[in-house]
Amino acid sequence: MSKYPNLTKSDNIIMEILWNNGECSSSDIQKGIEGKLDWSRQTVRTYLARLIEKGLVGTKEKNKSAYLYYPIVSREEYAADKSGSIMNKYYGSLSHMVAGIVQNEKISDSELDELEQMIRRLRSKEDD
Fold it and tell me: Residue 70 pairs with which residues in a beta bridge?
């Protein structure tokens, strides 16, 4: 079971801005979506309010009329939660999930080498 709610495409665009920039005002986010979404300031605030309700975004007062928004959950923590949920739902184990991805995607030899190196590093940390 996933700890965090799923993100819509629009939620994800806002979260990416926050993950990349940390604290942002709603106008910073508005600038960040230019060319991706044609939203008014009110629409940006509505999506931010939804992300706050989902427990993914926090706020702090910048001044009496403006707030800063920040991610409560890191991209890595969110991705780990979602990949764990997918693993449990569709694969049953990490090894089956990785094997399925490697078999069904175009994984280069260099990516496989990198994966092997990561596994070696993790194993050596366990031995410490």
Answer: 58
Other C-beta atoms lying within 10 Å of the C-beta of residue 115: 13
The encoded tokens of residue 22 equal 């940390």
DSSP summary character for residue 68: E
Phi then psi for residue 64, to 5 deg, are: -65, -20
Place of tokens 């709610």: 5
H/E segment holding residue 15: helix 9-21
| pTM of the complete model | 0.73
Q: For tokens 């993790």, what's the residue?
A: 122
How many other C-beta atoms are found inside a 10 Å radius of the C-beta of residue 26? 19
Query: What is the residue type of 117?
Result: Q
Residue 1 has pLDDT above 70, yes or no: no
Question: Dihedral of CA 103/88/5/19: which sign?
Answer: negative
Task: Check pLDDT > 90 for residue 72.
Answer: yes
